[in-house]
Design brief:
The complex is a heterodimer of chains A (367) and B (84). With 367 residues, chain A is α+β, with helices and mostly antiparallel strands. Chain A has five helices and 23 strands. In chain A, the strands form five sheets. Chain A has a five-stranded mixed β-sheet with strand order 2-1-3-5-4, with helices on one face. In chain A, strands 10, 11, 12, 13 and 14 form a five-stranded antiparallel β-sheet that branches. In chain A, helix 1 crosses helix 2. Classes of the chains: A alpha+beta (367), B mainly alpha (84).
C-alpha cells in the first residue's frame, strides 16, 4: 500500500458525506446503497465513522460529472479514466468524482459503482495506489465478484488512523506471492498448451516468452467460477477445462462456459455421494483415463466410455508410490504427472510408476 | 509475425500518443508540447515507462511493448500512481 505523500489525513475521524447528484444509470436507492457500503468497508476496519448529510458542505462530496468539470482534472469520455478523488483536506479535499460518461452498474457488468467507490474513498481518506493487484487500491478496474478490502488495504488505512475499535481485529485476503517459498496451490491444470496455477481468488501462469509471472483474478477469464477452486483438469481432445469445488464442477471451452453447468460430480462421474469434494484431478491425454484424487484414495474415469472404471477406489500409495496422501493438485505435461503436496512438487512417470524428481511447488516460476 | 497484421505507422503513432498521455496523466511526465516522434526514446519517457512497468510488475524494458500497451489500455482510476 502507499500513503499519500505528505501523509494527509482527517484530524476528526467522524466524517460527513453528501451525494450531490445521481447518475441516471441506476435507481437512486442503488447509488445510495453502493456509496454507503463503500464507506462501511473502511469504517469496519478503522476508527472512522461516516454520516450522510443532505445539504451544505460535507467533508466528502460525491458527484457524477463528465468531461472538464473545472477541477483541473477533466474526464475523458467512456473508458479510460473512470473516476478520481482528492486527498483529505478542506474544500475539494476528500471529494470523489465519477465520470458520467461511464455506465454505472450494480453487477459484474462494467463498471460496478460499489467497486469503484470503495477505491475512490480510499483516496479520500489518504491512501494512494497500491501495487498489489489483489488490493482495492490497485489503480486498474478489476471486478472479481465480491468487493472486499484486502489485507494490504486494511494495513494501509490502519497505518493512517490506527486499528479498528472492534475487539476482534478484522483481516483481509492476501495476494499470493509467486516467489514465496511457502506457496501452495488449490489446483493446477494445462490449458491449451499452457499451465495455469490456481490459489484463492487468483490464477498464475508462466510462459517462456515473458519473464514475469502473470497473476490476476480468476474472474478475469471465468467470472462464473467461485473462489477457492479445489481441482481442475483439461480434456485435451475436447478442448475442455473442468473446474471442481465441493460437489459441483464447471466446464469451459476457453472462456465460454458450456451449457448446463455447474453439474454434480456424483451424477456425472459416478463418484460415491460419500465424497464431498475432489482434492485433485488429471486426465491422461494418452489413455483418456481421468484420475480423481480424494484423501488417500483415487478413482479412475474413462473419458471415452464416460464411466468410472471398475475396481475403484484404490489407494494412491499402491499405484503412485511415494506420492503419499492428500494431493493438493496435479497436472500432466509431456506424459509425466506433476503432483503438488503442500510446498512440494513431485514429477512422476505413470509408465514406470516412479518419482523422477522433487521440486518446490513454484519451480515453474523461475524465481 | 505473419499471423498478425504488421502495425501500421498510424497504429504505432496512436500508441505513442497514448503512451505519452498516460505517462503525463499518471507518471508526472512533463508535457512540453513537442511532437511525439522526437520524444519516443527520450530520457524522461523511457524513465517514466520503466517506472510504470515496475509499478505493474511488468518486464522493465523502458519500451512500449505489447504487455505495457495492454496494461495502459485498461480502465482505471484517474488519480496518478506517483506523487505529482
Amino acid at each position: 500500500f502507499v500513503l499519500t505523500p505528505g501523509n494527509p489525513q482527517w484530524k476528526d475521524t467522524n466524517l460527513t458525506y453528501r451525494i450531490e447528484n445521481y447518475t441516471p444509470d441506476l435507481p437512486r436507492a442503488d447509488v445510495d446503497h453502493a456509496i454507503e457500503n463503500a464507506f462501511q468497508l473502511w469504517s469496519n476496519v478503522s476508527p472512522l465513522t461516516f454520516t450522510k448529510v443532505f445539504e451544505g458542505q460535507a467533508d466528502i462530496m460525491i458527484s457524477f460529472v463528465r468531461g472538464d468539470h473545472h477541477d483541473n482534472s477533466p474526464f475523458d469520455g467512456p473508458g479510460g479514466n473512470l473516476a478520481h478523488a482528492f486527498q483529505p483536506g478542506p474544500g475539494i479535499g476528500g471529494d470523489a468524482h465519477f465520470d458520467e460518461d461511464e455506465r454505472w452498474t450494480n453487477n459484474y457488468l462494467e463498471y460496478n459503482l460499489y467497486r469503484v467507490a470503495a477505491h475512490e474513498l480510499g483516496h479520500s481518506l489518504g491512501l494512494s495506489h497500491s501495487t498489489d493487484i489483489g488490493a482495492l487500491m490497485y489503480p486498474n478496474y478489476i471486478f472479481s465478484g465480491d468487493v472486499q478490502l484486502s489485507q494490504d488495504d486494511i494495513s494501509g488505512i490502519q497505518a493512517i488512523y490506527g486499528p479498528s475499535p472492534n475487539p476482534i481485529q478484522p483481516t483481509g485476503p492476501q495476494t499470493p506471492q509467486t516467489c514465496d517459498n511457502k506457496l501452495t496451490f488449490d489446483a493446477v491444470t494445462t490449458i491449451r498448451g499452457e499451465v495455469m496455477f490456481f490459489k484463492d481468488r487468483f490464477y498464475m501462469r508462466a510462459n517462456s516468452f515473458y519473464p514475469e509471472v502473470e497473476l490476476n483474478f480468476i474472474s478475469v477469464f471465468w467470472p462464473h467460477l467461485p473462489n477457492g477452486l479445489q481441482a481442475a483438469y483439461e480434456v485435451v481432445d475436447r478442448d475442455e477445462i473442468r473446474f471442481f469445488k465441493g460437489n459441483k464442477y464447471w466446464a469451459f471451452q476457453g472462456m465460454k462456459m458450456l451449457h448446463g453447468y455447474p453439474k454434480n460430480i456424483h451424477r456425472s462421474f459416478g463418484i460415491p455421494t460419500t465424497v464431498k469434494s475432489i482434492d485433485a484431478a488429471v486426465s491422461d491425454e494418452n489413455t483418456g483415463k481421468t484420475y480423481f484424487f480424494v484423501a488417500k484414495k483415487y478413482w479412475r474415469y474413462d473419458e471415452y466410455k464416460q464411466s468410472m472404471d471398475a475396481g475403484y477406489p484404490k489407494m494412491i500409495a499402491d499405484d503412485f508410490p511415494g506420492i503419499g496422501n492428500k494431493v493438493d493438485a496435479v497436472f500432466q505435461k509431456d506424459g509425466f504427472f506433476y503432483f503438488f503436496l503442500g510446498t512440494r512438487q513431485y514429477k512422476f512417470d505413470p509408465k514406470t510408476k516412479r518419482i523422477l524428481s522433487l521440486q518446490k511447488a513454484n519451480s515453474w516460476f523461475k524465481c | 509475425s505473419h499471423s498478425f497484421p504488421a502495425a501500421t505507422s498510424e497504429t504505432q503513432e496512436q500508441d505513442e500518443e497514448m503512451v505519452q498521455k498516460y505517462l503525463e496523466n499518471y507518471y508526472n511526465l512533463k508535457s512540453d508540447g513537442k511532437q511525439i516522434e522526437r520524444r519516443r526514446n527520450s530520457g524522461p519517457v523511457v524513465e517514466k515507462l520503466k517506472q510504470m512497468q515496475e509499478f505493474f510488475g511488468l518486464e522493465v524494458t523502458g519500451k512500449p511493448d505489447a504487455e505495457t500497451l495492454n496494461k495502459m489500455k485498461e480502465p482505471r482510476c484517474g488519480v496518478p500512481d506517483v506523487a505529482q
